[in-house]
Write a structure and sequence with these properties.
Length: 367
Amino acid sequence: MSLSALARFLRSLFEHAGARVLLTLLLAWAAALLCVALRTPLPWMIGPLLLTAALSMAGGPTASWTPLRNLGQWTIGGALGLYFTPQVVQLLAGFWWAIGLGVVWALALGLVFGAWLYRVHAGPGALQVAGLTRTTAYFASPIGSASEMTQLGERHGARTDLIASAHSLRVLLVTLVIPFGLQWAGLHGLDTSLPGPRLLSWPGLALWVLLTGLGCWAMLRLKWANPWFIGALTASLLLTASGANLSSLPPGWVNAAQLVIGISLGVRFTPDFVQLAPRWLGSVALATLVMIGLGAGFAGLLSQFVNLHWATLLLSTSPGGVAEMAITAKVLQLGVPVVTAFHVMRVAAVLLLTEPIYRFWYQRRNH
């Protein structure tokens, strides 16, 4: 039975939304166990991601339940915050200039990426993508914040399908290529000192859940991007940096969080995605691989000036999503606080600067 035939059969059996969510969770869990047996990197995220994406593109009855995804983001953000001990915060303070360079690097990559997409696909010819504008290419290119870039593009009259597909494919490729590459090269386990509390305390864990939940609530009220991740990370980081070691997290929590995040990424790849301008998707894929290669070179150069392994800096400056790269760093034990700090600052810069740069570079020049 082909994958598309299996997808049609499953869709006929699972018409109810709740049944689709349950089916997706069970299949994702099976895929994760298979990846664990195969010893793939990030098995609890990559297995569900690949299976869900394949079934979704085949038209299968996959579904991601938003509350579960939010809980996953909450768990991962809070777990990463446990790494920011006072000693680690002091260490990161010495890398402020490197983090700043990482932000500039990401912004420059995005601008070049967008300009190249427009140059290749806007003009007449075999590679032309109908309806592509400079605005669409611009908002499809920033490194990070996919949903926010799609919303900004829609506000300025861009094609949101092209923007969303570009960001989804970029994150997928980075999430697959870099972890497999690092594991194949044996570049894991370099950060053997894992800071933060190691003992599980149920009273402490209950207080931690309450305080990180308040952080999520605050970010929701402030309408901040990715509030469940950033809110939990901020609250957990502040607690740990102040020396409050409340509790570690049960390992099953982090695995379950990776699973639901993998599902939430996989369901983005609908049948429409496969039919969407193959030329466009091919260019996005090619550019993403080139950016990964350039990022490796930039990481190697930067490692000559800071006391960090280039693999840690590769994750820190990669064109992937903050949650996905932070999870990669956690699982492969590659400088979790450093990777998280680089990506959080980059996300903040992208959110704050993308629209002002657009107004200055495009709208101002057109008037």
